[in-house]
Amino acid sequence: MSILTANIKRVYKQFREEIFVLPSRTIVLLFCLALFLLPLIMTEPYYLRILIMASIFAIFAASWDLLSGFTGQVNFGHALFFGVAAYTAALLNANVGLPPWLTIPLGALAAVLAGLIVGVPCLRLRGTYLALATLAFPLILTGVVFAIPNITGGELGVSGIQRLSESRVIEYYIAVTIMVVLGFVMWKISVSKTGILFHAIREDEVTARASGINTTRYKLLAFCLSGFFAGIAGGLYAHFMRQAGPSTLELQLSFQVIIWVIFGGIATIYGPIAGAFILVLLMEFLTVAPGIRMLLFAAMVMLILLFMPEGLTTWVRNKTEKICPRCKLRNIATRKVCRVCRAELD
Amino acid sequence: MVERIIIYGLISGGVYALLAVGFSLIFGVARIINLAHTAFYMLAAYLIFTFANSLGLPLALSVVLSIVAVIIIGIFSYRLLIDPVRGHETTILIVTIALAIIIQEAILRAYGGGFLSVPSIISGYVRIWGTKVLYQQILTFGAVLVILLCVWALLMRTRLGIAIRATAQDREVSNLMGINVARTGMIAMAISVALAAIAGALVAPLQVLGPHMWTHPLVMVLAVVVLGGLGSIKGSLIGAFMLGFSETLVVFLAPSGAYLKTAVALAVMLIVIMIRPQGLFGVSFEEER
Q: Phi/psi at B288 (nearest 5 deg)?
């Protein structure tokens, strides 16, 4: 008994020191808890469906952030990865009969391949040129999809795919768990040495190269990683919707992902996840006014960005936390001295 | 067949050229990628429909009115929405996409999702080498040429044009030389939107109007300016006709060409920038301050 209380105390102490000291971490913890506990109080399939979609799109948005937010390789055609994976998973499942736990990773691998195919020629391009060149790839693939309807199903897409699970609640747990795990992995990548190199490439590629970093390799790595995560989202989407159509390659999806990320806060990983959840839910909530739904959506996004041009989470974080001038550690905004080095906070 | 390819290629190339020159202009002066550019083009076409069909004004007057109205809307959206976030490159993308979606949805609310058509400014046709050419098509192409010449003269021969080009080259130094950079940006936006509106007015009688008619030209314009080199007017012109013709060729010659036309045009663009990463006539910009 005493061991148990000691353990609980230790865990609590760790939580207090590591998580409750910062409002942002507390919010993340509460968000994850809420996601996992939600089905205990509510199993309405319609709401679970919205949250599953939000989770899938959150993975997708975070993967865009990894490539474009961190590495600065702005990709206007991110739907390519999503669509390639969705089609691969769908074709493998419908024609070969592979189960979802195989088709989704295989779809992700196909997306990695797509990342390489896009990444290698685009290495020479920079900034706006890169952004506009990447726009072309999903549109070219859409043209091909329409031109060979007997394989891809043309406008209707590939349908009759196996569900992730027969129960909506289990589907929900699969999607949410994958989202939380992959979100954590992506965040870990972004704060690792690789993540710092990604930052360096975005800030100044020439200097990064002069410091002995093989920027070509890291840029390709960013394309592949981003393709992989986006591919998992695409595979999940195909199995959840039980259909992979040309809408997965649309321009609209590529733009949508940029909206989620920039709305949430670019180059943060948690920002895109927050952005995807808030905006997908907002979009569903706005079905109360079906005629002007998109109009309200666009107007709200625009207004919020005019007030918080760096995105929602960055704005909230800057309001609730401040950085210690000496040790660069984050502190809650109410503190007078840094929680580690005791330097005066301004 | 050949004659039709030439006619349609010239017209679609001309329209892309008008759109792309305007797009390049505002990108050059203010570094704004205005994804709402072709939404203004659509807006102009719909306004002509409103003035001519719903209010019963004469066609020529409604064309002029709609162009003026779109310019005013463009300037207001620049001042109120785009200029405040100009420092944040990616935020501009979202704000302009949101603007385009707002225009699209407003049109969807006002006119419904169906297709509409606008009467020609001059009707009738003439036969050239046995091919039927609508007067409207000749008018469109002629107007494109005249307007492009005017833009060229404006940029190359007037003080305003010099100010615009100077601001595009180096914002800071032009500011030091006494150019009112903010005002130049606004004028460039007005010209850019005006070009989009004119393109819309010229195309309206040749096409059916639908609330999604802005996406395809947007993709093509993005491809054209990349192909020609960002900020280069000459490049935009040549790129526009290259892509206009390759699109038309695919539509007329390849099976299921209507699906593949965008794909082939974009592939042409990709091939060109793989060989020349800065586009045909692009100058590789120095690191921006």
A: -75, 140
Among chain A, residues having any CB pair with chain B shorter than 8 Å are 74, 121, 124-126, 128-129, 131-133, 135-136, 139-144, 146-147, 251, 255, 258-259, 262-263, 266, 291-292, 294-295, 297-299, 301-302, 305-306, 309-310
Put simply, the answer to whether B230 touches A128 (Cβ < 8 Å) is yes
Query: What is the spatial distance between Cα B135 and Cα B146, in angstroms, rounded to a whole number?
Result: 16
Judging contacts by C-beta atoms under 8 Å, the chain A residues touching residue B231 are none
Which residues in chain A have Cβ-Cβ distances shorter than 8 Å to B104? 294
Residues contacting B44, CB < 8 A, separation 6+: B66, B67, B70, B196, B197, B198, B199, B200, B201, B204
Q: Please enumerate, as own/partner, the contacts of A150-154 that have beta carbons within 8 Å and a separation of 24 or more.
A: A151/A91, A152/A87, A153/A245, A154/A246
pTM to 2 decimals?
Answer: 0.86
Q: Which two tokens stand for residue A17?
A: 């020191």
Tell me if B109 and A291 make a contact (CB, 8 A cut-off): yes
Q: Which residues pair with B187 in a beta bridge?
A: none
Work out the minimum CA distance from B2 to partner chain A, whole angstroms. 24
- Shortest Cα–Cα distance, A202 to chain B (Å): 13
Pairwise CA distance, residues A86 & A235, whole Å: 5
Q: What gap in Å lies between CA B10 and CA B1, rounded to an integer?
A: 14
What's the complex ipTM?
A: 0.78
Contact A258 B87 (CB under 8 A): no
Distance CA A56, CA A157 (A): 20
Q: With contacts defined as CB-CB under 8 Å, which chain A residues touch B279?
A: 129
Please list, in sequence order, all residues whose beta carbon lies within 8 angstroms of the beta carbon of residue A302, skipping any fewer than 6 positions away.
B81, B94, B95, B98, B99, B102
The token pair that represents A202 in the structure block: 């975005």
Interface test with B, best of A146, A305, A306 (most B CBs within 10 A): A305
- Measured between beta carbons, which residues in chain B are less than 8 angstroms from residue A136? 223, 266-267, 269-270
Per-residue pLDDT tens, chain A, 346 aa: give them: 788 888 888 888 888 877 888 888 899 999 999 999 999 998 888 999 999 999 999 999 999 999 998 998 888 899 999 999 999 999 999 988 899 999 999 999 999 999 998 888 888 787 778 888 888 899 889 888 988 888 888 888 888 888 888 889 999 999 999 999 999 999 999 999 999 999 999 988 889 999 999 999 999 999 999 999 999 999 999 999 998 989 898 888 998 898 899 889 988 899 999 999 999 999 888 888 777 787 888 888 888 888 888 889 999 998 888 888 888 888 888 888 888 888 888 7
CB atoms within 10 A of CB B153: 11
Cα A129 to Cα A76, A122, A326, B269: the distances in Å are 11, 9, 40, 11
Provide the total of helices (H) and of strands (E) in chain B, helices listed first: 11, 2
Q: Tell me the shortest Cα–Cα distance from A55 to chain B, in angstroms.
A: 22
What are the structural domains of chain A?
42-307 (1.10.3470)
